[in-house]
């Protein structure tokens, strides 16, 4: 097995792109059509490969996608990274090459404007192709590093491009690559370290059972409500268990949407709306449940902690929003220290981890106070970072993009 995944040494920060490949032509008003070449009776994420490819290319911005005609010619077996797809669609004349036993093979060609696709179809019948002959045919050949972007802004990470063949790689290995590609690079420590392995298998099961991402999101909403009620009643262990199930499903729904190409604006609003609104209700429920606790912090300290947590939650979001408004990217991807801070900052998952440890020690009340202290620490931290960015002479740039 030889997955095409890792950059060679030297491709970690910058990719040297030939001058003739650097100009990306703007997409026309009519999206580029895609022609899928060949047949392959395979399935990917529970879908027929042809259907998965149609969805993937459609999400990348292609127009009509079929196996009879199209300006962008690509073998149906090739699973390409999203940025690779987008840039191929935007560059007439691009010829994507991959390694072969004795040289290079063709993966895709974006037929030059006003050219007849027929002569280019013959090139796909060759086991090996020569770059000079492709240039003579009016094409700009390059490998995946020449055409793909190395930074995914929406997922806050550097992204290794890939071009994987369903004929030569195991399906489950390709699905692992796609799953990893759907994961945010900078997120909290629970999502980053605890959930990836189980989330992969649950996402795969949901895809096989044709369970929609919005169904998973609805299930997570039910656990939001269940955790709220359990916290309100002071049932800490059960409430924490329900909360962790919710956070796990919150990971699965997004990955399921991206791997099965079923994400939508409504799904994004539904998912992120729940994420944004529910944490203050959980804190309120915990505060209420603590009223009947036999021992622990005073009522005044608990009430003050609730006020700090709720105010800090809002103010922290405002700090992040102001950074995005001013500089156009998220504060957590500015510098490495900000990425590390995102793993442990006073958000839902790290706060639930603090509370869980306190419950295990028999001190839920002091766990609630600890969340308030943690909130203050990171409210100050992010506020200082925002001020530093504003006072900086040059506009901040994400270290992942530099």
UniProtKB/TrEMBL annotation:
Q: Which UniProt keywords apply?
A: Membrane, Transferase, Transmembrane, Transmembrane helix
**Which PROSITE patterns does the entry link to?**
CDP_ALCOHOL_P_TRANSF
State which residue ranges cross the membrane.
352-381
For the keyword Transferase, the answer is yes
What cellular-component terms does GO give this entry? membrane
Name of a matching Pfam family:
CDP-OH_P_transf
Q: Which domain of life is it from?
A: Bacteria
Q: List the GO molecular function terms.
A: phosphotransferase activity, for other substituted phosphate groups
What Gene3D superfamilies does the annotation carry?
1.20.120.1760
Q: A Gene Ontology biological process annotation?
A: phospholipid biosynthetic process
Similarity remark: Belongs to the CDP-alcohol phosphatidyltransferase class-I family.
Under which name does UniProt file this protein?
Putative phosphatidyltransferase
Q: Tell me the organism.
A: Hyphomonas neptunium (strain ATCC 15444)
């Amino acid at each position: 097995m030889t997955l095409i995944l890792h950059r060679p040494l030297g491709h970690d920060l910058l990719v040297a792109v030939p001058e003739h490949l650097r100009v990306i032509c703007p997409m026309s008003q009519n999206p580029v059509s895609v022609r899928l070449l060949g047949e392959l009776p395979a399935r990917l994420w529970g879908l027929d490969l042809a259907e998965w490819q149609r969805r993937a290319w459609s999400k990348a911005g292609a127009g009509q996608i079929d196996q009879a005609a199209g300006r962008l010619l690509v073998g149906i077996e090739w699973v390409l990274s999203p940025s690779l797809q987008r840039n191929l669609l935007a560059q007439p004349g691009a010829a994507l090459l991959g390694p072969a036993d004795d040289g290079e093979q063709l993966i895709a060609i974006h037929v030059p404007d006003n050219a007849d696709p027929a002569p280019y179809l013959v090139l796909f019948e060759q086991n090996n192709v020569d770059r000079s002959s492709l240039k003579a045919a009016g094409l700009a050949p390059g490998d995946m590093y020449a055409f793909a972007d190395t930074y995914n802004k929406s997922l806050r990470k550097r992204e290794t491009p890939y071009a994987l063949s369903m004929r030569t790689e195991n399906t489950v290995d390709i699905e692992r690559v796609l799953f990893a590609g759907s994961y945010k690079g900078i997120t909290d420590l629970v999502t980053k370290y605890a959930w990836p392995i189980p989330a992969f298998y649950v996402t795969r099961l949901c895809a096989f059972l044709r369970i929609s991402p919005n169904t998973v999101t609805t299930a997570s909403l039910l656990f939001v409500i269940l955790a709220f009620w359990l916290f309100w009643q002071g049932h800490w262990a059960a409430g924490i268990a329900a909360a962790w199930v919710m956070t796990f499903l919150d990971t699965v729904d997004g990955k399921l949407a991206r791997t099965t190409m079923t994400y939508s604006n409504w799904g994004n609003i539904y998912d992120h709306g729940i994420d944004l609104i529910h944490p203050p209700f959980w804190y309120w429920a915990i505060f209420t449940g603590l009223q009947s606790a036999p021992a622990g912090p005073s009522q005044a300290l608990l009430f003050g902690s609730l006020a700090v947590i709720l105010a800090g939650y809002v103010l922290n979001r405002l700090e992040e929003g102001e950074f995005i408004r001013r500089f156009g990217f998220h504060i957590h991807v500015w510098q490495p220290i900000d990425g590390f801070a995102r793993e442990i900052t006073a958000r839902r998952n790290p706060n639930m981890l603090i509370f869980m440890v306190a419950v295990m020690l028999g001190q839920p009340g002091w766990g609630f106070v600890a969340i308030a202290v943690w909130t203050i620490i990171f409210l100050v931290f992010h506020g200082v970072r925002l001020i530093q960015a504003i006072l900086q002479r040059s506009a901040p740039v994400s270290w992942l993009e530099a």
